Amino acid sequence: LEIPAVVALGDISAKVTTGQRIILDGNRGKAIIDPDDETIARYEGIRLKFIEHERELSVIRDLPAITADGREVMLSANIEFPEELEVLKHYGAKGIGLYRTEYFYLRKDTLPTEEELFEDYKNVAQAVSPDPVIIRTLDLGADKFVSYLGVPESMSSMMGLRAIRLCLKYQEIFLPQLRAILRASVYGNVKLMFPMISGIEELRQAKSVLEKAKKELDDEGIPYNRDIEVGVMIEIPAAAVTSDILAKEVDFFSIGTNDLIQYTLAVDRGNEEISWMFEPFHPAVLRLIKYVIESAHNNDIWVGLCGEMAADPVFTLILLGLGLDEFSMNPASIPEVKGIIRASSYADAQEIAEEALKLSTAWEIEAYIWRIAMQRFPELLNWVGR
Fold first, then answer.
1. Is residue 1 situated within a structural domain?
2. Is 35 inside any structural domain?
3. CATH code at position 165
4. Using CA atoms, how far apart are residues 66 and 380, in angstroms rounded to an integer?
């Protein structure tokens, strides 16, 4: 929605009052309360330089994300609201790599109807066609809680009854959404993705409900794309470790690094006391990503990544070098990432990724990647807060 925001600033809301001037530095994750004239002037200069930087990047908006030696990847958008569609073309997004569908369930006190969901999915599919839209099935629970389901909040924690687990338990919620997605699939390039899959048994259960939805539509004579691609989010270590098994029964993977990191490192990313331990550069995280990508390619399916790592230009080279096929991110981050990809070679990125994986600590890997990035792309990375 292009609204400047900074989070995880402790009790800052208790320290400011209406009418106070604040500078929000989203690139470095800080807020400056009552800045002096010198600071205001400095940030005004930064703002103008950033506008010019964006203007320079706009030149490549409609060009493909292709490396100097011919490796092309997809740069897609993560969206949550239909209102975000209008900014996709502005930033050169090639479709939607993650369409979060929870807002329809959170905005009111009753379940949305199948017809409401169908109209929404159809409109989104038509808006981005022929580019793809990957619709993630309902990921309620944890930080997205609805009281009208009658599920105690204590049962719906990050590791409780959430996402696909909740949908399999409450198929009266799951089935209408699957029907709506299938019905919308004839209006564009729609793909379907299950979240929080932990293993092959859970995947097969979800696909069984999908087959039930297809049979119902067949019986009712309602058209849908019989070849709709079905994928899973890899965001649980168990799914990553068994991705070679999962890859045999899906059409694609999307790595959800936000959850994958916290589950792998046993770190609650919402807990400010230990937020410093949430470390994307951790060797375990990068090795899991590498294994998932290899598992996908060994089974002839493609793999994307839709966590915050995809939007961070410091990670672009290593993810490119690991063989990632699709980066899905906040639309505003696409030009920066595309600029790095177009200025790089895939062979070089592979060497960088290989060297990074030889290192033992997150600090060593981050220092190595950061040094490489700053040497090669200083003009692109002036805005990254480190």
1. no
2. no
3. 3.20.20.60
4. 17
Size (the chain), residues: 386
In DSSP terms, which residues pair with 233 in a beta bridge? 254
- Separation CA 166–CA 262 (nearest Å): 20
How far is C-alpha 128 from the geometric centre of its chain's CA atoms?
18
Residue holding tokens 């330089």? Answer: 49
CA angle 383, 385, 386 (to 5 degrees): 130
Structural domains counted in the chain: 1
Asked, for residue 292, whether it belongs to a domain, the answer is: yes
Q: 275-281, long-range: CB within 8 Å, 24+ apart, which pairs?
A: 275/8, 279/362, 280/308, 280/309, 280/312, 280/315, 281/362, 281/363, 281/365, 281/366, 281/369
Within a domain: 318: yes
Q: pLDDT, tens digit, for every residue of 183-205?
A: 999 999 999 999 999 999 999 99
Look up the domain containing 308 and give its range: 64-376
* pLDDT tens string 278-308: 899 999 999 999 999 999 999 999 999 998 8
Which of 354, 372, 361, 371 shows the shortest CA–CA distance to 282? 361
The mean pLDDT of 45-74, rounded to a whole number, is 87
Give CA–CA dist 320/326, Å, rounded.
Answer: 9
